Sequence to fold (260 residues):
Amino acid sequence: MTTPPLVSIIMNCYNGEKYLQESLQSIFTQTYENWELIFWDNLSSDSSKEILEKHQDRRIKYFCSKRFLNLYEARNHALKEASGKYVCFLDVDDLYEKEKIDLQVKFLEENEEFKMVYSNYFTLDEQIKKKFVKLKFNLPTGKITRKILRHYTVGIINTLLKREIFEKDKFMNKYNIIGDFDFFVRISRNIKIGCIQKPLATYRLHAKNYSKLKVKVFHDELKSWIKENEEDFNNAGYTFFYQKIYLFKLKVKILCENFF
Fold:
């Protein structure tokens, strides 16, 4: 019997004790069993390491950063330790559905023209303890750059990628908020992206998602990204994106002014 391909799950952690056990449990209950967990501890000062060490599982690989890194630099360091054919990401406050990895590996194994697959996902509102399907329309597949610029549907938790992608492309270390968006837009221009329409992960909404600082950083990073990429996307006929993003920037600016 052929051994199923190894999947590397990247979990970056900085003081994630509050929800970490739930996130880990969503990995341990996966129907797909040939995985390794690359746990990158970004100098946590809470009990995150102790929570992880309670699980005596040979598939867990713990790494502690020598210095504090921003999120996307930490993701790149963790990726260097991955040895799977496929890579996926789970943050310490989010969750996988039990068939997430199984269904996505099956899709990529059966559809070799795709190098990445994503899915719909749930949002869990921590305040009211209710879960909702995030995207209420048919998600795009194939060469989807134009479509995800119109409506961004790809997230870090709802994807599975061939590790070979990271031999050419990496997350941009300079970003703290929009690194996922930047990365997926870049690679979408060169590869076909597959999709499973059902929700396979859960993004948890809580107070720290919407901190004042993050809104300001998000605004500044998006402004910088637009400036760097505007000529390239205009030449490629993506002017509609900048019309849309201009309105979005105004909304973010209003939020920032209300906060500060």
About this structure: Strands lie at 7-13, 35-41, 60-64, 86-89, 95-96, 114-125, 130-133, 159-162, 192-205. The first strand starts at residue 7 and ends at 13. The CA atoms of residues 122 and 133 lie 4 Å apart.
